[in-house]
Amino acid sequence: MLTEKQKLKILTGLGIELNRVRDLDILMERILTEARLFVNADAGSIYIRDGGHLHFSYTQNATLQKRLPAGAKLPYSTFVIPVNGESLAGHCAATGESLNVADVYRIGPSLPYRFAKRFDETSGYHTKSALVIPLKTIPAEVIGVLQVINARDAAGRIIPFAKKDERMMLHFASVAAVALQQARLTRDIILRMIRMAELRDPEETGAHVNRVAAYSVEIYERWASNRGLAANEIENGRDILRLAAMLHDVGKVGVSDLILKKPGRLTTEEYERMKEHVIVGARLFSDRTSEFDRAAAEVALNHHERWDGTGYPGPVDVLTGAGPRNPGASGKKGTEIPLFGRIVAIADVFDALSSRRSYKAPLEEQEVLETMKKGSGTHFDPELIDVFFACLDSIRAIRMRYPEREIEPGVTGT
């Protein structure tokens, strides 16, 4: 358990630490981890507000995590609750006031809110104490809710959250909310870029890029853990990769509509022009003034390379486009392809095979998985394909979290 002095030290440096995290999803996970550590909570969850609803975004549970095999993660859960006085989180968001409940099963009948027992009933977990804190920005706008569950004493017994911890958590939440607001702004800017690409290519949707990015992070995290990378290195890599992966196809803004929206098969010449989108995408980040710029350029340029060297564009000069891009030219091979490019290649192909397109129905999962497995050693890095299959449960949960939209008949794409 942290001492009061340690908690004050954490608060002092919290703003700096959280503002180093660029991606919204990675930041929410980090905030939840720090919050639980701050008050020695066994579990917790974080919600993001969107108008009159709260979107359940992340959960952590030390007790349930211990029941899983080594390296496995709790699955994503996705649901929405209204901002009203009926639930603990909804009441907190509606009123902007924190709730400190000693026993959620013994909430007085005169109070308007109730604890929803559904999670406990399905998971076998028992929630008792809960501290629910609004995430407020200036001027006092509630952008989300942070909920920590089951405070524990030094002996591991469940206890109520102390009043002094509630006061400290209010300060914690105010710092976290500022970082969340900044990360939301970054995400919004990226999604605007995606929508710009979507105007050109109807297949390049926000759901698609979120799935590809989330798959990529899962693969990277398991790969990095298997390799024994340091925790801070893994966290930084996840943060950068998620944003970079979202922009893997942004270079399609530089491809003619006559090619992008052609309903039939592309000619050889048209396909060669289409392939230039990887160079255009990498060129957008050619200044490379940050780790993100370097990663985004790396992903954009390399996510169509193949492990056996038959991909594209091969070793080209991004600024001039000079290089062996003629049909049949050799692409990069094996580990010549940067790691992030190899990871996003797997995520992108899996999502394309699994998703409906204007020109095809989604394949059945078994057929998709067989195709992915057959691509090991030819299309894909064999080690990373093994990692992909090892975290398949998380991959499936991500697909549920970011469902694809319905594509209208007659809308075409590539």
Structure description:
The chain is 49% helix and 11% strand. It has 414 residues and is of the alpha+beta class. It has two domains: 4-183, Beta-Lactamase, CATH 3.30.450; 201-401, Hypothetical protein af1432. Strands 1, 2, 3, 4, 5, 6 and 7 form a seven-stranded antiparallel sheet that branches. Strand 1 (41-50) and strand 2 form a beta hairpin. Helix 7 packs antiparallel against helix 16 (392-401), helix 11 (277-284) runs antiparallel to helix 12 (291-302) and helix 12 (291-302) crosses helix 13 (339-354). The radius of gyration is 23 Å and the shape is elongated.
How does the helix and strand content classify structurally?
A: alpha+beta
CATH architecture assignment of the largest domain? Orthogonal Bundle
> With helices defined by DSSP (H or I, 4 residues minimum), what is the helix count?
16
**How many runs of DSSP E, i.e. beta strands?**
7
CATH superfamily label of the largest domain: Hypothetical protein af1432
Major sheet details:
7 strands, antiparallel
How confident is the prediction overall: mean pLDDT? 86
Assembly state of the chains shown: single chain
Secondary structure: helix percent: 40-55%
* First-to-last CA distance: 55 Å
Radius of gyration: 23 Å
Count of discrete domains: 2
Beta-strand content:
5-15%
SSE order, one letter for each helix or strand: HHEEHEHEHEEEHHHHHHHHHHH
Uncertain residue ranges: 406-414
Q: Which outline best applies?
A: elongated
According to CATH, the fold-level topology of the largest domain is Hypothetical protein af1432
